[in-house]
Amino acid sequence: MLVQGLVLAGFSLRFRRLKIGGLFSSRSGDNALSGILLEGVRIVGTPPALFFWPEGLGYGGGQVGLWRMATETHVGQVRGRNEDCVFCDEALGIAIVADGMGGHAGGHVAARLAVDAWVAHLRARVAEGEIRERDVQVAVAEANRAVFSMASSDPGLRSMGTTLVAVCLRADGTLLTCHVGDSRIYRWRDEVLTCLTRDHSVLREQCDAGMISSPSRAGAALRGLLTRAVGVAATVVPDLTVSGIHEGDVYLLCSDGLTEMLPDAEIAEVLGALGANPRLAAEHLVDLANDRGGVDNISVVIVSSCTSGRLGAELG
Q1: How many angstroms separate the CA atoms of 309 and 28, rounded?
Q2: Based on CB atoms within 10 Å of each CB, which residue in 28, 161, 222, 241 is the most buried?
Q3: Sign of CA dihedral 238, 239, 244, 245
Q4: How much is the CA Rg of the chain, to the nearest whole Å?
Q5: In angstroms, rounded to a whole number, what is the distance separating the alpha carbons of residues 202 and 181?
Q6: Residue 252 scores a pLDDT above 70
Q7: Is 294:74 a contact under the CB 8 Å cutoff?
Q8: Cis peptide preceding 155, ω within 30 of 0
Q9: Residues forming beta bridges with residue 64, ordered by sequence position
Q10: Which residues partner with 303 through β-bridges?
Q11: Quick one: DSSP state of residue 160?
């Protein structure tokens, strides 16, 4: 621990303050649990799960790559309740972040219901074979049905809903992404950070239409207004993508509590430096967002095949 502390101290000079451990109020770790799914949550998988690369990715058929995952969620510095929910499972190759909305208990309930339903469906599918795009669509439909049904039956939860971003790592070397709302998925590859999702929000649509020159110029009234969410209607259509996975890729799933506090440039710096250690990367991103004010709940999942970074994998 002492050696790690010395290394991290050098890192903090580059990235301002690096806060590890209990320098903030206790993280809301309960939201990294999913009520009916008590396995593989929070920081999971020791040793890392095995991932078999296919022919055509430059590694040779059957060659093994290593994937590690970590989650981190925090209530932030302003909100009284954490309405995010996160889950990851290296053995299944899946990860998900949900950012609930609806006030009072509603947001928390919506996020938890959506994660439970999505994971339960894909857990069953993995047992039968490889996850297909249709399986992910059905999993989102199940999540939407669970939230919408509960909201319809309980007047106190009627306005609840949730965002959802998720990934599935498949044995053929492809990544399935799934997204509804304004939570995001980023990919760090070859020193370049790419956002793989497009926000389903009024703000994003007005920016695309040229009505606003940049999101930073938008008024507070537009922030958080979604054009698509899980559980607010009887059906929802997710955005799905399929892409190849490269050795060294690092994927970040996050709620807007992170992206409202940190610009992409800072996210890129952290993933570039700590991508080989998903636990430290996740903790540091959340702590930086809290440093900036933590005005919302902050949740991240890091999925990494990276074995070296500017600080090296030895920190893990």
Answers
A1: 28
A2: 161
A3: negative
A4: 19
A5: 11
A6: yes
A7: yes
A8: no
A9: 52
A10: 69, 251
A11: -
Task: State how far the Cα of 115 lies from the Cα of 142, in Å rounded to an integer.
Answer: 10
Residue with tokens 């999540």: 143
Cis amide linkage into residue 47, ω under 30° from 0: yes
Distance separating alpha carbons of residues 268 and 247, to the nearest angstrom: 17
pTM: 0.79
Read off the pLDDT of residues 87-140 as tens digits, 9 standing for 90 and up. 999 999 999 999 999 866 699 999 999 999 999 999 999 888 889 999 999 999
Lowest mean pLDDT among 18-22, 203-207, 208-212: 18-22
- The residue type of 42 is R
Q: Which of 114, 112, 113, 136 is nearest to 124 (CA)?
A: 136
Query: Is residue 99 within 8 Å of residue 256, measured between CB atoms?
Result: yes
Judged by phi (left if over 0) then psi (alpha if -120 to 50, else beta), residue 212 lies in: beta
Task: Go through the chain and tell me how many residues it has.
Answer: 316
Q: Return the ∠ at Cα 298 (arms to 218 and 104), rounded to 5°.
A: 85
Type of residue found at 257: G
Residue 77 CA to residue 68 CA, distance in Å, equals: 29
Tokens, residue 193: 């950070």
Instruction: Compute the CA torsion angle 275, 279, 281, 287 (nearest 10 deg).
Output: 180
Structure-model confidence comparison of residues 79 and 59, the more confident one: 79
Query: Tokens 């009887």 map to which residue?
Result: 234
CA dist 24 and 26 (Å) reads 6
**Residues 311, 284: contact at Cβ < 8 Å?**
no
| Gap between the Cα atoms of 24 and 197, Å rounded | 30
